Amino acid sequence: MNLNYAFMLEDIPVVLSALPRTLGLTFCSLFFAIVTAVLFGICILKNIPVLKQFLIGLNTVIKGIPLMVQLLLCYYAIPYLLRAADGFLGYVYNPKNPSYFAFAVVAFAINYGAYMTDVVVSSYRAVERGQLDAAYSVGMTAFQGMFRIVIPQAVVISIPNLSNYFMWLLKATSLASVVNVFEILATARMSTANNYAILEGYIVAALIYWAVCVIFEKGLNCLNKKMSRYRNDIVVS
Amino acid sequence: MWQGHELFLSSLPKLVPYIPVTLLCFLAPTAVSLVLGTLICRIRVGRKNALYYITSLFVSFFRGTPGLVQIFLFFFGLPKVFELFGVNINGWDAVVFYIIATCCNFSSFVSEALRGAYEAVDKGQIEAGYSIGYTRFQCFYHVIAPQTLQIALPNLKNLEIDLLKGVATAYVIGAIDVMGAAQRIISQHRGYGQIWILLAAAALYFVMNVVIEAVFNFLTYICNRHERVRI
Amino acid sequence: MPMVELKQIKKRLGGEDVLNGVDLSVGEGDVVVILGPSGSGKTTLLRTINFLNPADSGTVTVGGLTVDSAKHHHKEVLALRRKTGMVFQNYGLFKNKTVLRNITEGLTVVRKIKKEEAEKRAYELLEKVNLADKAGAYPAELSGGQQQRVGICRALALSPEVILFDEPTSALDPELVGEVLKTMKAVALTGITMIVVTHEISFAREVADKVVYMEGGVIVEEGTPREVIDHPKDERTLRFLRSILEDSMDYMI
Fold it and tell me: Whole-model pTM?
């Protein structure tokens, strides 16, 4: 096939230079998604009336709308919100230099937060009620029982699901290329602007994504295998 | 920004005619992937021959790269491949490229979901099938296939929902589904009221999503009938 | 003064009276076995003692500390739980901790004892039940009988004033029941106060200082094993004992 192979080789380091941004976007989004999920999960598990129903409804809506639409909504709507917040608590809105990266993080955190809420709730519920009783029986306080016995078990139970969502998120960050975040895909496209070797640019991007995904997948599989002795103990009874 | 709700209402009827395009982009890969995914799954649970390694590479690539990248690859790459055979496909609609790319992507995910489910089927069930004299085909048809499908169904449901929502990315290569139409209206308004137009698109996707979810819940209900009787 | 004293314990669950004014007094060093058909409220009663399922009303006294079920403060409950140990029907070992950690957890976290000291104590106890070699294993790697013996060690490690046994052998395969009962007998010989909910009549006859028969949320009969098991006065006790006896006859056939 008629491809510019020399350019592809040249292009690899250029596109690779955007890898930190893709990973940064992934980990930032993951962090805020987990924070969101834990907060939502606590409200649902604590059975806080109204708030619980509201959050369940909100999650259904978030999960029912394409991520791309949410991303564009954040991209368009957040500047309005920031402008409205101008002057509030000394915040100064700067329309010249919007942080598209942060907008994308907000969109991913909301979307994946909704999915991970289910993980938080189901993992917590997967820990047997008897474990907390046992903690009480040796004289632990509710706080000690929660943080020493129940939550560590819930975390271990949630890890396979979380690693799945991590892989999805890693790939989903490519969507941020449509909202001016120069991660791998956008960088690849831009690098071909002068020589029309568009396909070559996308091939390079694909190969880099593939390599990164395979590496992370192997790493997470390793982690999961290590944890599985532990997990069997917790889940099988 | 806050006075745009009439824009929301006025863009809804303009987006509704594109629902069939979205559904086509959803149903075509679904149909193809049920066949292709099953085939790949069959190869990947079998002996490790050349076909095994080829399909493994195929699955690894399509699961290991973003769908968005794959769409671009097919949109720009497929015409070049066809050029080798002297066929010009530049005139094809972007929707076709989206569907082809998505068929490959989705088949990979479906094959993995099926493979996971197949491995979860109680092997004693298969032995039981042979023990009453089933042929290999009978065993597949009466024992393996229904049980695999039942186990895979929750996963398949999530994949299908993702597939539907993924159609919203097709506009990046110029395919005009609901999202593409919304983008077109946005550009006609020169950037005014994007949020309301997008919300109209979001509402339509949400409704489609609810329908698909209901269909799958019904399927799950049917597949799990025999479990409930026991309780 | 009795070690454990329950006064007028009442509890409703799902619109039904599970406990209907139970009074029970257990002297120091006594082994009390509570018998009764399933649904008689005996497990519920046991769990009201350490407030895992607090009663609606009535008072619980353990080792001189009296807590009113109707208005208990969480600090009182905690103090009371620290005077008791419990052995669970489904073992209740912490699944994310090794055998050793299961035993030392209460000592280091609750009693603030140094780790080395706690481990020394844990090994001593594990030696006694022949499980010292399993110290590094996770609960799921042990048989039910082994898990339950660890559960007993965990309760003993805290040197509680009373240990509550909630049907400790009913989740076990029949061939594993013996090893756990043997351990329980050894514990009884150390002179610690025990309250045991069980269906093991032979254990009650051999080890108990006092047998309590419960049915319908009240104590029907209590006394020495000889009085309650061999010469029951109440019709209901007799019927229950006969049904259990017939069950074991079925086994023999």
Answer: 0.85
